[in-house]
Amino acid sequence: MPMTRKKKPKREIDAAKHHAALAQADGGSQYEYDPTLAIEDCRKTGVRHMSGVFICHACQYKPNNNGRPHSWGSGKVCTELYLSKDNKTYRAVFNAQQCNQCNRYARFKVNEKKYVDKVLDTFELWTGRRAAYRSELHKSTGPHDSSRCYGCVKGICLE
């Protein structure tokens, strides 16, 4: 049986596979996901930070990792959000981070509950269903390595 190679992790990760969770949440069923939604077709676009875990499978072959992939959590994953002019379709794109051991972009596993909450909260703000507020709840637990963040490389990250 021939070995199949896994695809290289992408710098930009489309969030389409998380739409089912968003559609099941309160207020989420009104939105459809459109992976082709372009800026010119949008009412509003913006960037939010999401949280999750990056996993670098390339590093599992390094001697110091004992066959385990290198992973790290991040609460500052630069995520682009797009909402259509008719408020019915949206798109989200996660920007990857590079591994600090091998400099390759890693796979991303988003905290889906927080993703759904933040996306729906953002859309409520953008459509005028809630007023803006400043959250003081989130406290950073570590530095943001802008040289390894693809959102920073593109010049769109909030950090």
Automatic annotation (TrEMBL):
<dbReference type="Pfam" id="PF13695">
    <property type="entry name" value="Zn_ribbon_3CxxC"/>
</dbReference>
<keyword id="KW-0862">Zinc</keyword>
<keyword id="KW-0479">Metal-binding</keyword>
<keyword id="KW-0863">Zinc-finger</keyword>
<dbReference type="GO" id="GO:0008270">
    <property type="term" value="F:zinc ion binding"/>
</dbReference>
<protein>
    <recommendedName>
        <fullName>3CxxC-type domain-containing protein</fullName>
    </recommendedName>
</protein>
<feature type="domain" description="3CxxC-type">
    <location>
        <begin position="49"/>
        <end position="155"/>
    </location>
</feature>
<dbReference type="InterPro" id="IPR027377">
    <property type="entry name" value="ZAR1/RTP1-5-like_Znf-3CxxC"/>
</dbReference>
